[in-house]
Each structure stands twice: as structure tokens, then as C-alpha cells.
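sorry for the late reply, my laptop died twice this morning and i had to redo everyting from scratch. anyway the thing you sent over, i finally got around to it. pasting the sequence first so we're on the same page, its 342 residues, then the predicted structure underneath. double check i copied it right bc i was rushing
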Amino acid sequence: MRATRGVRLTPVPLAAAARGAVALAVPLLIGVLTGAVVPAVLAGIGALWGVGQDGSDPYRLRLRRLVRMGLAAACGLLAGGLALRSGHPVAVPGCLVAAALLGGAVSLRGPLASVAGMHLLLGATVGAGIPVPGPWWQPPLALLAGVALVTALSATPWLWRRHAIERDAVLAVYRAAAEALSAAGSAEAEAARRRLTAALDHAHRAMGRHLSRRVRSGTELSALRDAFDTALRLGEVTSALVWEGRVLPAHVRDVPLRLAARLLPAAGTAAPAAGTAAPTAAGTSSGATARPVPGRTAPPAAGTAGAPDPAAAAETAPPPTGTPTAPGTAASDDGPAETPAT
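ok and here's the structure:
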């Protein structure tokens, strides 16, 4: 009991539990009320498989996983059902062997492909083992209906909380860093540091696809990326301080939460303003006077003693170079005027 006293229990995902209850109950209830029990059971199987792939990860990743799983399971169910309806003794074993080989080959391409390959084999097993009355296309559609119900329930909150999952993951890093700094110098420091590492890993998975693409500045996603970059550096600094084993003052322990309040925008809002004023041009402030440069005489102002008079300068200016004109003749802009004949 003492060994497990310091272990923190994982919070129950109430939203996922509620979605699972609704997704499993609705198809069966509709089947009982309408009398279509067999399609309702198949829809319930699809909903059950969909609930198994539901989670709290970002909506786009969740949607891709559910769609691939549903399509693979429907294809397997269709292939198994057609093999069973054919009545050939080799059709069902051949279908299962082919589904197993194809599912194993697909599973090697990544986590999402692994989910699709596994449910391809599950669908083929159910379709080849349970005879379903009705047309051949009805079981795959019923299965897809159950998966579509789970997908709709899981992805609908994206409409009003688009980047809330990423924001919560990044915010968890700042909170874990604050807890680690508070536990520095105590027996709980190592456990707090491990929780910080786990929070960083979860935030990196949540922000993974947003880190490799260009994001327009000034948006909520841009602010989340900046906050995540700061969280990475904060994690390194926090780990170093925890390893030193010294008790930190209160103003140091509050730094992560202050950073989170400054960097993380509220859900659905743009990036926080930088709060910096634009630089003022030199010498343009109101009431500022020009400073004389050492070794250089400032030019006198207009109308003061020593300033050249424009009228006097015009009278004493030398005549323009060119051909002199005779007295009594006028010069034009095109050149000297011709002298009239006498």
C-alpha cells in the first residue's frame, strides 16, 4: 500500500466513455424498435471496433484511424461473406489465409496501417464464420454505419474546439515543469521529472503534424508552435535544475505557469499580442531639438543674420555661359536670339 501511495491514477476519460455508451446503445435500440436485429448487431460490432480505436489524440489523427479501420473491416467482412456464400470448401480457408497475409503486410507500414490490417482480418473472420441473411452488400454497410456513428460522435467537437487537444497537451508540459520545480530538492523530484518527460512526449505527438508545415503567423496554431518550442527549452532547464537537488525559491517555481499564461492563447483566439511598441525614428520626437555635431557649424536659420538673401543672390549671380546677346535683344529658352538686320 505504501508503494502505491505516491502513484497518480490516470483520470477516467469520461467523454470517450459517454461516446462509447451512445454508439453501442443506439444501433441496438434501433434494431429492437424496427425489427432489423441482424443489421443492428453488425452496426453494433462496427461501433464496438470504432470505440476501441477512439481516444483523446488530435481530431485529424483520430479521424484517419477510424476511417481506415472502418474501410478495412468492411472489406474483410465483404470478402468473408462472399466466400461463405459461394459454398466452395476451399473458399473460406483461402479467404482467411489471404486476409491474414494481406493484413500482416499492411501492418508493417506504420501504426495506422497496423490497425487497418488487424481489422481486415477480423472482418474476414466474422464474415466467413457467421452466415448473415439478406443481400451481400447489407453487412458491410451496416458495419460502416456503426463506425460512422462513432466517427461523428468523436469528431464533432472539432467544430468548436479545433486546437483544444494540442493546447491542453502543451499546457500540461508547463504544469509538469512547475510541479518539477516545486519538487526540486525533495524525494518527489525524480517522479516529477519523469512526469515532465511523459508530458513532453505527449505534447510532441499532439503537435507532430503541425511542426513540419508552414503556419501563418498571428494565428492560434502559430502561438501553439511558439509555446511548444518554449516548452522544450523549459523542459531542459527544469531537468537541469532538478538534477542539482536544491530547493528553489518561489519566484522561480512560478515561472512555468507565468509563461503558460503569457504564451498560450485561449481556445479559438489568435496569438497574443507582442506588446512591444514600434521604434521611434531618431530626432522625430515631439519637442526634440537638433544637437550640434562637434567640429561642424550649424547653418543659420532663414531670416537671421548671416543668412544669404535669395534676392541679392539672384542679382549678383553670374550670367549664364553662352553666346552674348546684343543690347536690346531678348534671349529665348532655345538659345540666343538673332540680331535684327539694320
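Residues 263 and 274 are 10 Å apart (CA to CA).
thats about all i looked at so far, will dig more tmrw
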